[in-house]
Amino acid sequence: MALQYNLFDYSFKTLEAQDKYEFDCGDADLTEFFLKDAIPHKKELIGVTYFFYDDLRKLAVSFFTVSNDAVRTDTFKENLPEGKRYSFYPAVKIGRFGVNKEFQGQGIGTQMMDYIKWFFVSTNKTGCRFLTVDAYNKPEILDFYGKKNGFTFLSDKDAEKQTRIMKYDLKPYSNGLLMDSYANR
């Protein structure tokens, strides 16, 4: 029987220069980003990396890096309110996302996606309607974002490209959280 991990059994924080944690997700580019490139990105104000970790083992369980983005509203048909139709809607790009090999296949990635959605709805300091991601154009990656986590393609123009731009509308998720909070009163 496979182990089942719960992401919330681990600590969470913003990656800082003094942090030294082991990490290997099996993708050399993502692993190197977490270990070497995330801090320079933060210093250049390009992206901020957050991660869950096991402090006793000095092991990063999973991480994500986010930066500001925008979604052109003329590239898709959403149920956006009349009178509030802008050329662009604010978004956050999930620029990097990785799960340590030890924890893969245990639901940690989906738990992280749920956490990211909650994180940007509950601490929405500047307005963020969408999450975006440039997903590798591989069936298992597209299924992870699409079927498992509710992302949709921004358009079909990139169907033959190495990556596909996908979006997740946080408004229905936010409405669900509001309904849950009213139901729990």
Can you describe what's shown?
This protein is α+β, with helices and mostly antiparallel strands and 185 residues long. The protein has one domain (7-73, 88-183): Aminopeptidase, CATH 3.40.630.30. Helices cover 30% and strands 29% of the residues. A seven-stranded mixed β-sheet has the order 1-2-3-4-5-7-6, with helices on both faces. A hairpin with a 4-residue loop joins strand 2 and strand 3 (59-72). The longest helix has 16 residues, at 28-43. The N and C termini lie far apart (39 Å).
TL;DR of this structure?
With 185 residues, the protein is of the alpha+beta class. The protein contains 4 helices and 7 strands, in the order βαβββαβαββα.
List keywords for this structure.
185 residues, alpha+beta, Aminopeptidase, 7-stranded mixed sheet, 4 helices, 7 strands, disordered C terminus
How do the helices and strands line up, and which of them pair or pack?
Layout: E1 11-14, H1 28-43, E2 48-54, E3 59-72, E4 88-99, H2 108-122, E5 130-136, H3 139-148, E6 152-153, E7 163-169, H4 170-183
Parallel strand pairs: 4-5
Antiparallel strand pairs: 1-2, 2-3, 3-4, 5-7, 6-7
Q: What is the count of DSSP helices, taking H or I runs of 4+ residues? A: 4
Strand coverage percent: 25-35%
CATH architecture name: 3-Layer(aba) Sandwich
Number of strands: 7
Radius of gyration: 17 Å
Strand order of the largest sheet: 1-2-3-4-5-7-6
- The CATH topology is given as Aminopeptidase
Instruction: Label the overall shape.
Output: globular
Percent range of helical residues: 25-40%
N-end to C-end Cα span: 39 Å
* Mean pLDDT over the residues: 89
Largest sheet: 7 strands, mixed
For CATH, the homologous superfamily is named as: Gcn5-related N-acetyltransferase (GNAT)
Determine and state the CATH class: Alpha Beta
Helix/sheet category: alpha+beta
Number of domains: 1
The low-confidence parts are 181-185
Question: How do the helices and strands follow one another from N- to C-terminus?
Answer: EHEEEHEHEEH
